[in-house]
Predict the 3D structure of the following.
Amino acid sequence: MPDETRFSLSLERITNYQFETRFDKDHLEPLLLDEPEPLGDDRGPNASRLVGAAVGNCLSASLLFCLEKAKQHVNGIKTDVVGTSRRNEMGRWRIARLEVRITLDVEADHAERLKRCLSLFEDYCVVTASVRKGIQVDVEVTDPKGNKLFRQDGAEVG
C-alpha cells in the first residue's frame, strides 16, 4: 500500500457565493456550496458544515469498519454533529468546536471486541486526526493566464 495518496476537486463560482464543486471521480455528482444569508442565498452547505460532515462521516465509517472486521452485527449508526463557531482574537470567525454524538445500534456478540473498537476507531479516522493535529495548507492565486498573483506556503504543523 502506498505511503501517500492524492485526491482533487475543483470549485467554480456559479453566482454570488454559490460554487459548484466537482470531484475527481466522474461518477460523483457535483455539489453546490453556498454561504448562509445575508452573505449568500443558503442554497447549499457552506465550508464549515462540510468540515462537520467530514468529521462525522469519517468517525462513523471508522467505527463501522472496525465493528465489521470484529464480526459485530451493526443494525444502525446515526451521527449528529453540532459545530460552534466563534470569533478569534483577530475578530475572524473560526470553527471552535465540533461535538459528535454517535448512536450505535449493535448486537455486541463479544463485549471485548466492541470495547476494543471503541478504543481504536478515532485513531483511524483520517479527517478527525488531521483536523485535530492541523493540516498544512499551501495557497496560490493566479490570473486566467496563469500569472502568479499570490503564493503562501503553509507552515509545517503538528
Remarks:
- Residues 11 and 21 are 4 Å apart (CA to CA).
- DSSP finds three helices and seven strands in the chain.
- The first strand starts at residue 9 and ends at 15.
